[in-house]
Specification:
Largest interface: A-B, 27 and 34 residues
Order of helices and strands of chain B: HEEEHEEHEHHHEHEHEEHH
Largest sheet of chain A: 2 strands, antiparallel
CATH architecture of the largest domain in chain B: 3-Layer(aba) Sandwich
Oligomer: heterodimer
Largest sheet of chain B: 6 strands, mixed
Structural class of chain B: alpha/beta
Radius of gyration of chain A: 23 Å
Shape of chain A: globular
CATH topology of chain A: ABC transporter involved in vitamin B12 uptake, BtuC
Shape of chain B: globular
CATH class of the largest domain in chain B: Alpha Beta
Number of helices of chain B: 10
Number of strands of chain A: 2
Bound molecules: adenosine-5'-triphosphate, magnesium ion
CATH superfamily of the largest domain in chain B: P-loop containing nucleotide triphosphate hydrolases
Number of domains of chain A: 1
Structural class of chain A: mainly alpha
CATH topology of the largest domain in chain B: Rossmann fold
Chain lengths: 362, 263
C-alpha cells in the first residue's frame, strides 16, 4: 500500500515535469520556429484530439463508425459562425443573406469551441438513437451515410453556412496554447474515464456484447454515451481545425479526412490512447514530409512529373501493410506507464546486479 | 400472499418458445424454491440452454410467463433481469477476452454502481470512492476464488479451469440471488468435478444463493442437486428428486444406451 502511494506520487511528479517540458518546448517553438513548422506542430495536436475521439468509439467500444468528418464539419461551422463578427458575416454571405440568430451571434473563441463540441454531441445523439441499434459493418455504412448527409445539408443551407462558397477569413485563434490545452484536456478526460470501471464497461461491450448484457450492462446506453463523447471531441477538433486553417468549405470534410484519422488510430493501435498520440505525431509529420513525392523531381537526369494525390496512394498502401503484418498497430492495446519506462531504462543496471549475484553464488 | 407462493424464487408457467417450425421448449413449468440447488438435464439439443436464454431475457417466450420473487419478468431485457438478481455462466465460456481477470470481475460489479459516468472526469468524491470499493470487492472475490495470481493476466491467457472459475466469480460480482450454471463441469476430470461439487455447495452458503444448473455429468447432478427436471425435445418428461429420476422408466428410455446412471 505504502509502495503504491509512493509510486503514484512519483508518477504525478513525472507527469507534471513532462507537461512543463512540453510547455517550454512550445514556447521555444513559438519564438524560433518558422510558420510551416509551427503549423505542423499545431496539426499534430488537432489530429491527436481527432484520433482520440475516434479511438473511444472504435477502439474502446468496438463501434466501426465512419462519421468523423461529418462531426468535424459541424464543430468547425458552429465555431466559425460564433467567432466571426456580424459585419464580417454580412459581407461574406453573398448568395443568400445570413439569417437570424446566426447573423448576430458573436462569442469568444473558447465559447465557440465548446459550443461546437456540444452541438456536435447533440446531433450525434440524434444519429445514435436509430443507428446504434445496428452492429458491425452496417454501422460503418450508416455513419458514413450520415456524414455525407451532413455535408450535403451544409452545402445547401446557404442562409446559415454560405453554401459551397464556405467561410473564409476566420481569425487564427487556434494557436499552440489553445490546441495543446485542448489536447491535454481531451487526454485527461479520456484517461480518467477509460481507466475507471466505466472504461472497462466500454471494453466489455467491445469484447462480447452478449456477456456484457448478462453482466447487467445496458449496452445500448453505453454505446450511445461512447458515441456522443467521441462526437463531442470530434466537434472540438473540427472547431480547432477551422480556426487553424482559417478557411472552411463543405468539400474539405469528405471521406478522405475520416480516412486520415482512421489511419492514425489503426497505426497507433485500436484501444490505446498512447498509440493515438504516437500515431498522430508520426503520420502528421509523414503526411507533410511526403509532399515531396507530389512535386516534380529529377533523379539521375530523369524528370519525374509531380503526381497529385501520390502521397495518399502511399498511405493507402501503408495502411494495407499495417493491417496485413501488424494488425494491432504500434501499441496494440497497451498503454504508456511510468513503471514500464522506468523498468526499461533501468534494465542495464538490473542486469549488472543479476550478474553480480550470480558471481557471488559461484 | 400465500406462504407456499413466497417460497419459490423463480417460477416458469407453461413457457413455450418456437423458432420457425421448431418448438425448442414446450409448456415448461418449473418452481425453484429459495436456497435450493436444482438441476436441468436432458440429451443434447433438448432445449436446456434455451431455458436459460428465456430466463435471462435473451428470448421472449411465445406463450407462458416467468416470475422472479413474485414479480413478472417475462420479456424484460437481459440487463434489467441481471439488475433484479439473476446471473449466469455460458456453456462455452464467454469472458471479456482482452480484459484482465480483475477487470472481468470489476465489470460484473458495475450493475450495482450508483454514480454516473460523467462524475468520473469531474472526480466527484462519491464516484471516486465507489471506484475504489469496486476494485476492493473485485480483489476479494479473486482471492476467494483462488485466482489472485491471474489478477493482471488477460482472460484469454488463463488455463481452462481458471477461466471457468473466473466466469463464476464474474457472475457472483453482480450480487445475484439466483445463479444459473450452464454445464460447469464440462471438460473436467473426475477429481475436478468432485471439487466443483464442494465449490457449488460452498458458494450457495457463502453468498446465500439459489442455484440452477445444467449438467451432463450425472455424478455431479445426482450428488449436488435436490430436485431435477428432465427435458427431451423441449418437453419436460419428468421431475423429482435424484432418486426418483434415476428410477423413472421414461428417463431411462430417453437416455437409452447411454448408461449414464451406472456411475
Ligand atoms: N436462436 C435459435 N434459432 C433457432 N433454433 C434454435 C435457437 N436456439 C436454439 N435453437 C434450437 O433449439 C434446440 C435446443 O437447443 P439448446 O441449445 O437449448 O439445446 P441444449 O439442451 O442446451 O443442448 P446441449 O446439451 O447440446 O447444450 C436445438 O434444436 C436448437 O437448434
Ligand atoms: Mg446447451
Amino acid at each position: 500500500m505504502q509502495q503504491k502511494k509512493k509510486n503514484r506520487f512519483r508518477d504525478t511528479c513525472l507527469t507534471i515535469i513532462v507537461i512543463v517540458l512540453l510547455g517550454c518546448f512550445l514556447h521555444y517553438a513559438q519564438n524560433h520556429f518558422n510558420g510551416y513548422a509551427i503549423q505542423i506542430i499545431n496539426l499534430v495536436a488537432v489530429n491527436a484530439i481527432l484520433a482520440l475521439s475516434m479511438n473511444i468509439i472504435y477502439g474502446f467500444t468496438g463501434m466501426f463508425s465512419l462519421g468523423q468528418a461529418g462531426f468535424m464539419a459541424i464543430g468547425a461551422y458552429v465555431s466559425a459562425l460564433c467567432v466571426l463578427t456580424p459585419e464580417q458575416k454580412e459581407m461574406m454571405w453573398i448568395l443568400d443573406e445570413i439569417i437570424w440568430p446566426f447573423s448576430t451571434i458573436h462569442t469568444s473563441f473558447f465559447v465557440s469551441v465548446v459550443a461546437g463540441g456540444l452541438i456536435t454531441a447533440f446531433i450525434s445523439l440524434l444519429i445514435a438513437l436509430p443507428v446504434l441499434r445496428l452492429g458491425g459493418d452496417y454501422l460503418g455504412i450508416a455513419t458514413l451515410g450520415f456524414a455525407e448527409i451532413i455535408r450535403v445539408v451544409i452545402t445547401n443551407a446557404t442562409p446559415i453556412t454560405n453554401g459551397a462558397l464556405g467561410i473564409k477569413g476566420i481569425p487564427l485563434h487556434a494557436n499552440m496554447w489553445w490546441n495543446y490545452g485542448w489536447l491535454l484536456f481531451t487526454l485527461y478526460f479520456m484517461i480518467v474515464l477509460l481507466r475507471s470501471n466505466f472504461g472497462n464497461v466500454f471494453k466489455a461491450i467491445r469484447d462480447d456484447e452478449v456477456a456484457a448484457k448478462v453482466m447487467g450492462i445496458n449496452t445500448f446506453k453505453y454505446r450511445v454515451i461512447s458515441f456522443c463523447i467521441g462526437a463531442f471531441f470530434a466537434g472540438v477538433g473540427g472547431a480547432l481545425m477551422g480556426n487553424l486553417i482559417t478557411t472552411i468549405d463543405p468539400k474539405m470534410f469528405n471521406f478522405l479526412l475520416t480516412f486520415n484519422i482512421l489511419m492514425i488510430v489503426v497505426a497507433g493501435g485500436l484501444g490505446s490512447l498512447t498509440g493515438s498520440i504516437l500515431g498522430s505525431v508520426i503520420i502528421t509529420v509523414l503526411l507533410e514530409w511526403l509532399r515531396i513525392v507530389e512535386e516534380p523531381m529529377t533523379i539521375l537526369n530523369f524528370e519525374i512529373p509531380g503526381i497529385p494525390g501520390m502521397r495518399m496512394v502511399i498511405f493507402a498502401v501503408a495502411l494495407l501493410v499495417i493491417i496485413l503484418f501488424r494488425r494491432e498497430g504500434l501499441m496494440g492495446m497497451r498503454e504508456f506507464s511510468w513503471d514500464s519506462v522506468i523498468g526499461f531504462l533501468s534494465r542495464p543496471f538490473n542486469r549488472n546486479k543479476n550478474a553480480d549475484t550470480g558471481k557471488e553464488q559461484a | 400472499m400465500t406462504p407456499a407462493k413466497h417460497k419459490n424464487l423463480l417460477e416458469l408457467r407453461d413457457v413455450t418458445i418456437r423458432f420457425g417450425g421448431v418448438t425448442a421448449v414446450r409448456n415448461l413449468s418449473m418452481d425453484i424454491p429459495k436456497d435450493s440447488i436444482v438441476g436441468l438435464i436432458g440429451p443434447n439439443g433438448a432445449g436446456k440452454t434455451t431455458v436459460f436464454n428465456l430466463i435471462t431475457g435473451f428470448y421472449r417466450p411465445n406463450e407462458g410467463f416467468i416470475r422472479f420473487r413474485d414479480r413478472d419478468i417475462t420479456g424484460l431485457p437481459p440487463h434489467r433481469i441481471c439488475g433484479k438478481g439473476i446471473s449466469r455462466t455460458f456453456q462455452n465460456i464467454r469472458l471479456f477476452a482482452n480484459e484482465s481477470a480483475l477487470e472481468n470481475i470489476m465489470i460484473g460489479c458495475h450493475v450495482r454502481r450508483k454514480s454516473a459516468w460523467w462524475m468520473m472526469p469531474l472526480l466527484i468524491p462519491s464516484c471516486v470512492r465507489e471506484e475504489k470499493n469496486i476494485r476492493e470487492t473485485a480483489w476479494k472475490l479473486l482471492a476467494t476464488m483462488g485466482l489472485e495470481q491471474y489478477a493482471n493476466v488477460p482472460a484469454v491467457s488463463l488455463p481452462y479451469g481458471a477461466q471457468r472459475r473466473l466466469e463464476i466469480a464474474r457472475a457472483l460480482a453482480t450480487e445475484p440471488s439466483l445463479l444459473l450454471l450452464d454445464e460447469p463441469a464440462a471438460g473436467m476430470n473426475p477429481q475436478e468435478s468432485t471439487e466443483l461439487m464442494d465449490f457449488i455447495r460452498h458458494i450457495r452458503r457463502e453468498y446465500e444463493l439459489t442455484i440452477l444448473l445444467i449438467e451432463h455429468d450425472m455424478k455431479v447432478v445426482m450428488g449436488v442437486c435436490e430436485h431435477l427436471w428432465v427435458l427431451e425435445y423441449g418437453q419436460c418428461i419428468a421431475s423429482g428428486t435424484p432418486d426418483e429420476i434415476q428410477k423413472n422408466p421414461k428417463v431411462i428410455e430417453a437416455y437409452l444406451g447411454e448408461e449414464v446412471f451406472d456411475a
